[in-house]
# Entry
Amino acid sequence: MLITMVEEGTVAAVTVDTCSTEEWLLNSQELVPIALTKAKEVKGFLVRWKMIISKLEQVPSKLSDLSSHPCFSKNALCKEQLQAVSKTLRESIELAELCLKEKYEGKLRMQSDLDALIGKLDLNLKDCSLLTKTGVLGEATLQFNVSGFLAESDIETHGNIKELLARLQIGHLEAKHKALDRLHDIMREDEKNVLAVFCRSNVAALVQLLTATSTSIREKTVSIICSLVESGGSCENWLVSEGVLPPLIRLVESGSTFGKEKAIVSLQRLSMSEETTRAIVGHGGVPPLI
# Structure
């Protein structure tokens, strides 16, 4: 694992065996002022660096919100998020130094690198807010009361599933895909436990993944959505509210054979509601289903 040590305004990445969540927090907090100072010294690519500075200035408040969350030290998601923030801050410092020394491989390459940095900062800020403001962190850390009908093994299973569901909402697309793969595998073995812990934010994340460019991801997503629809309950209303109809209709029109099959089953089940039927018609979903 790499962590950046900050001493007297210098930055150096060193290898460490283990770092606690609190240490990653401190590391990020130390990197922010260095990243800001370096960014403000750059004279070129002013529009992009102005955007970067604006986003860097938002990082301290996000870190404060994250560190004050009751689940801060109890969930791996916090530590991973801080690692991601630290990595982005190091990259910002490195790019600023390259710009200051004018040691970069062409302006177009640097513009592309700065655009990528802006995207990473956006993602870091969004994910920090998601963890602290929407209940994702609390959901993923929730401890079930060992009583009644829940065995201890069920508690562990539910906790693992909740963390996977949280991972569908944060991080870059590849990380979300890995979480989806694992969730899909678990559902094939234990669909009941997965469905038992779904909430609206998880449904919204799945709907977004329906539009992924990867056929495999779309197929796994629509398979899970089909199970949600067939399970009944509040999931049907959540799916419709989160905009599942248009991507399902597109899957029927141009998806793989498996994707079409699952999308058709989902739409047919959802169409049992008169209001949803009208919505399907409004989205042009009748011809593909005929």
